Amino acid sequence: MLTLRGEHINLRALEPDDLDFLYELENNPEVWEISGTTAPYSRFLLKQYLENAHRDIYEVKQLRLCICDQDGTALGLVDLFEFDPKNRRAGLGIVVLDEERRNKGIGSEAVQVVLDYAFKVLDLRQVYANVLEENLRSIHLFKKLGFEQVGIKKDWILSEGNYKNEILFQKLQT
């Protein structure tokens, strides 16, 4: 896959060298709530995942790309998931690992680049995102990029004994 380029970031396929980065990200309990993770991942399991990460989105219904700065440093991940070519839609998820790198435009640019790819290359009609009601940064990000709030999933996520609502955002191809 060619690297997808933005002005300040690039999106590229995962590489074997991303093992340490993926290990740190996937084993960060702060992102477990949004990823549905309930237990740590081993390096062995993540290495196997990376060995299969080259598989086509039409086969595995997911595309995970590494967000990198211009120097090639891995900053986060952006995913298209639940890819449905018949109905021309996919979900979108994003995480920037380092708290200090958030709110610097990285996520916004990464989402815009992946949206361009989704709409122009994959010819999707719609992309949606699920965001916890308390995640004000992500709500701001998706609204800023033209996503529309289309629903609330009540008591959707159980976290530390409490249920949380999840907002469903959608962006239609124009």
UniProtKB/TrEMBL annotation:
Keyword Transferase set for record: yes
Organism: Pseudozobellia thermophila
InterPro entries: Acyl_CoA_acyltransferase, GNAT_dom
MF terms in GO: acyltransferase activity, transferring groups other than amino-acyl groups
Superkingdom of the organism of origin: Bacteria
Stored Pfam families: Acetyltransf_3
Protein name: Diamine N-acetyltransferase
Domain named N-acetyltransferase: residues: 9-174
Keywords, comma-separated and alphabetical: Transferase
